[in-house]
Amino acid sequence: MPRSRAKGFSLKTQIYGLVIFLGIVSFFGTLLVSVDHTKEYLNEQMSSHAQDTATSLGLSIAPYLASEDIIIVETMVSAIFDSGYYAEMVLTDTDTQQVILSREAPKTVDTVPNWFIDMFKLSPPTRESKINTGWRIAASLSVTSHAGASYYQLWQYALKASAAFSIILVISLVLAYFILNAVLKPLARVEQQAIAVSKKQFNINKKQSITRELNVVVNALNIMVDNVQKNFNSLTNQAEKHTQEAYIDKLTGLGNRRAFDSQFTHHLSEIDDDSIGTVILLELASLRDINQSQGYQAGDAYVLQVVKIVKEAFEQFSEFTFYRINGGSFIVSIPLPLSLCQDELQKVITRFEQLNTEEYPNGFAKLVSTSYKKSDLLKSLLISLDSLLTEQTSTLRKPEYTLDKTSGLSLGLQEWSTLINELIESGRIEFLVQPVQKCELKEQEDEHSAYLEKPFYNELLAKFYYQQDIIPNNQLFAMAERLNLTEQLDIKLITAAAKLVKPDMSAPIAINLSQQSLLSENFCQWLTRFISENNQCRNQVYFEVNEVALLKDINLASKHIHQFKALDIGISIERFGTSLTSFKYINGLDLDFIKIDGSYIRDIDLNKDNAHFVQAVNQICHGLGINVIACHIENENVLNVVKSLACDGCQGDYIQAPKALYVS
């Protein structure tokens, strides 16, 4: 499920914040203490200066005061006062207490900001000296220092101290940054390793730090990652060995008869009632002669040549499946009517005819084909193909199909292009919903009612309407992919589905994503813009991606999956196991769910090989933290087996059949 983002601040941010906070506090604290200390010094200096002036000036004017020469006294006082260092000078007669002479200067200080004056109040002292005329004290002289010069000195000191302390602070913070960065860098690597583990990426951190405790954590995490990786490799090797023995032809790497029976039977059960597909039987009539005349190595080369021709012809069909059901017999299944894959079939026939030489006494290869629909039985289809092969060699039968309840839709490429573009522009969509429930449920009186609990998510199944008729999804998306229009269809689906997202939803919704959208840079850019405009979709939407689409370009798909997860969109791989390839590709993919293909589930209570396969998938995925879903559960026996194998989720008509939800 989409991961919730880690909350809180990183340790690095907290430590840097603490260092900066302490640095700033230290800066201002030191500055304030220093300025305050200087203020006290200036107060003492003003006091001493006022006392010295009062004493020296009193001695200087005493002779003139005795002779009552007030003009000279006034001149001498003014000369000293006008120096600007004094706020007030007062000469007072001791006997009468009358002021003989007074000088006072403005107390404002223009060169220093008022806020600084208010913050650091200076107390200009007043000092007094007695003036003697003979043995009599004739007057007293009081001198008050002016704070202006001291404020200016204090202000200049504060500026210089601020500059010096700022430089020290910056240098200290820079040094602290590099020191902390060196100390915390190993911790960042541990964090990245932990994040990688949460994304199912198991990387070893080989670098050690100088911190002993951190090295203990690193070593423990490395051991855990190494054990998980070893366990994953061991389990995947066992699962691959079992899969190859049970379902894969060793020479060609194609699915064998057992894989064909299981997967094609399941395919018939899940297609729409109106869907029409094509099944082709290839017979290498000369294989036995080649083996006898030229040896088995030549026979193997013959088989591989046929496989290459068929794959090259049908590689554009993502849903194309190819099986080797016995030595010289192959089955090809395409979910499209014959009329829409006729050109590719003709290419194969033409190539076979070109290779018809004397080297192949019974011809290079024989090919017959027929159509199938949901109601057909596998046994009947194989009998029909065998009959065609007996009756005529290299026959391409092309029945005509029209739109009705049983025959499906048969159109040319241009007609399909017009239809799909009209659907994208103005087509009507009906959504059905089917939940993916948890296998481990609370006990209730009615066991079946337990599945009313909150599911993992609700899968949306879309039906497209064109002129009041339902377009079969298999044909629609197969043709849209062929015409490079599935990306636009996906955008229409996602836009419509986003309207269903509500804060009070019982569970997130899941939407099937096509191969073209998964591998498209343009789609990723559109999705980023769409999610930014529809934040309600975060943590409320899953994409279900077909395994075959994922394996088309695993590196590009992995890149885009990580982009989806960054948008808080969950990822589920559906039809897991149909490709019959190695499971190792899931290591490193940030997946939430793996949905095992229904071909392994539908008869799991009767098929031990399928049970072993599901058990192996569970062990591998649970080791990676991925939930496993068993789909197409149709009865209680299958459900019980699935639960006993420790699957996490279950889906199917037995749990809950799809029900109508919304029409756009």
Automatic annotation (TrEMBL):
Residues 218-245 form a coiled coil. One of its GO terms (molecular function) is cyclic-guanylate-specific phosphodiesterase activity. SMART domains: EAL (SM00052), GGDEF (SM00267). SUPFAM superfamilies: EAL domain-like, Nucleotide cyclase. CDD domains: EAL. Keywords: Coiled coil, Membrane, Transmembrane, Transmembrane helix. The chain crosses the membrane at residues 15-35, 163-184. PROSITE patterns: EAL (PS50883). Residues 413-664 form the EAL domain. This is EAL domain-containing protein.
